[in-house]
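A protein record in our archive is deliberately plain, so that people and models can read it alike. The record that follows is passed on verbatim for readers who wish to inspect the format.
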Amino acid sequence: MPYLIAVVALVGALCLVDLVLTLGVVRRLREHTKLLDALFEAVDMMGGPLGGGRQLSPGDVAGDFEATTVDGTRLTRDLLPDGTVVAFLSPDCSGCHEKLPAFASWSAGQDRSRVLAVIDNRSGEPAEMVTTLQPVAQVIVDSAVSDAFGVQSFPTFLQVATGGKLLAVAPDISRLPAESPA
């Protein structure tokens, strides 16, 4: 009997130590999340990761553009519905390929007319991205739209109000404040 009590006490002590360590890890992860958010904001204020220009920020208005989706629909800045989420992706961007399934999954639950995927055509083969996104989003394969929005890094996710005014800019769809524009 004394051995059983000792074993139970030891297991209980180990569980307590494990709980304390787990709470410490959670606390550190929260600190890292705050640091990463601050880093994203600092990079955005410098005009993107290269610091070579100015990426548009919330409140700015995107430049004019005219493009045609892969379905043949003509789109301009002024034709985007209020709350449209625009994703800028590049075929040769590994981060874009990592985020593509989550974006496609998110888009499947949205109004297709309010989700626009712009695939930069300056490098790589966009066919895989087009095939994945076409059923759930309007897809444009063009670099001029990226230029109109001042996009300097991929992936970039924006939420746009009527008239092309940017409501939010984020490097991930989960970081947009209003994940459901519809």
Remarks:
- Residues 2-45 form the longest helix (44 residues).
- The first strand starts at residue 66 and ends at 68.
